[in-house]
Every structure is written in structure tokens, then in C-alpha cells.
Amino acid sequence: MKAFPDSARDIFANAYPETPARLTHGLVDHPLLALPALVELAASLPDKDVEYNPGKLPIGIAPEDIPSPRLGIVETIRSIEENGSWMVLKLVEQHPAYRELLESALAELKPLVTPKTGEMLTLQGFIFISSPDAVTPFHFDPEHNILLQIRGEKTMTVFPATDEDIVSPLAHEGFHLGQHHRNLVWDDSFAAKATSFLLKPGEAIHMPVKAPHWVKNGPQVSISLSVTWRSTWSYEEADARAFNHLLRKFGVSPASPKRLPRHNRAKSVAYRALRRLGLAG
Questions:
Q1: Is 32 helix (H, G, I), strand (E, B) or coil?
Q2: How far, in Å, CA of 43 to CA of 30, rounded?
Q3: Residue 43: in which H helix or E strand, if any?
Q4: What are phi and psi of 255, to 5 degrees?
Q5: CA neighbor of 280 nearest in space, from 183, 200, 173
Q6: Which residues pair with 147 in a beta bridge?
Q7: What tens digit of pLDDT does each residue of 36-83 get?
Q8: Among 94, 84, 83, 102, which residue's Cα sits nearest to residue 27?
Q9: pLDDT for 243-272, tens place per residue?
Q10: Where are the alpha helices (DSSP H) in 45-184?
């Protein structure tokens, strides 16, 4: 079963790595992505790799303010139509069948990715199962990502990854040092900078590294698959952010890491050297 038709690969080739873009895919009817299979997958994963939250949340919310879920993992999936929740099954490649699905899908994109950002590193998959009208709050992610809509509809509202009025350098640095949750502070003024993508089954979106976004599900249960990977650039950007944090301790106001196709190798090498010496967290 082919994940991405040639037309989608052409669009992806033009958009990758820095432009959000709508794609199509062929995994809507894949048996591993049907709800009964996902119940079994959720039961097999370690508890730490299943996150579930109430779905009636504001766009911006601090992690400590998110209410605790009322139901267990399996019960949440089985009653997802009426329980008002959203959940994510993380690192699904731990299961051999899902690892094969992930690797097969990304192998179709490898010839397009490698010339631009090098080897596809740290392949990971995430499956989102959400109640009608559930909201995933404003956040960003460190991976190159394609989200494939399998069932239901959702609207992805995406913001420029380079806009430091939306996400400050300090928030970036804190995230990579484990001091800042993926959720971001929301301001209504950001809305004017957004691009929204309505995704229906068989559609997908390419999401650049750390492009802020929030998600609103449609009136039916939603199932989505995120296929993600890292690159040398994404790891160097993370190291450069951490190095900038160290520079601030000495009163320096460092320049933010550069976006692709430029690199952040010097700061990355410096931070890794300091970390090996035990001089960096």
C-alpha cells in the first residue's frame, strides 16, 4: 500500500523543508489505523507513551492547568465519540507492525529529503485519536513532520516558524533544555499571522520543524498519523539554542540560530564539547 502518490511527492519536494503544504496520502483504509487496532496498540504501549487530555481546552493553556483525565487509556479510546478527549499514542514504532508502516511511508520520501537535509534520523510515529470538536492547544514540535488524516476532519492552524514575536528565543531555549513544555503562550493578536488547513481523510500536511500550531477537530471522531524524523540540522538547531542559553549567563545577547538551508554547526559543536566536559546541562 503506497503512502504518498506521485502528485503528493511533487508538492512535498517543492515545500520541504520550510513551507507548510497540503498533501494527499493512501493510508485511509490501512487496518493498523482502524479504531479496534488502535485499542490493542494503546494497551500494548508503556503508560508513559500514551498521553490523553480533556478536549475542551482553550487555544493557549499552561500544562499545569490542564485537567486530569477521567478515564483510563482503553476506556478513553472506546468511548472517544462522547467522552470529550484527545489522546496521542507516542513512539508507535515500538510495535513491529507500526514500525514497518512508518519506515515504509518515510522510505517513499527519502530520495526527496536526503539531498536537502541529509539522512533521515530518529524515525518516530504518533497517532492522535480525538473526540468531536476537541482542541489541541498552541504548541510546537522539534521534528520534521507529516500529519496524515485518517478519519474525521481537523483544522490545523499554522504560524511562521521564524516569527520571534510569536515564540521568543527564551522559549525556544527553555524547550530544548527541558525547562519549557511544548505548549506555548497564546495571544489573540497572533491570529492575523495564521494559515489554516482543513484536513479531510486522505489529506495530509507537511509541518516544518518548530512551526507553531494549534488544532481543532471537526464534528466527528478524528484519527491522524504523524510520521516524523530528525535531521542533522534539527539537532544542531537544538544545540545552538542551548548554547545561546549559556551565552546569556555571561551577559551576551546571542543571535538566534539560522533556518535552513543555513547551518548552526559552530554553536552545536561548541555546546556538545561543553556538555562532554560536564560544563553544560
A1: helix
A2: 19
A3: helix 35-44
A4: -70, 145
A5: 173
A6: 205, 226
A7: 999 999 999 999 999 888 888 889 887 777 777 777 777 888 888 988
A8: 102
A9: 999 999 999 999 999 999 999 999 999 999
A10: 73-78, 96-107, 110-117, 169-176
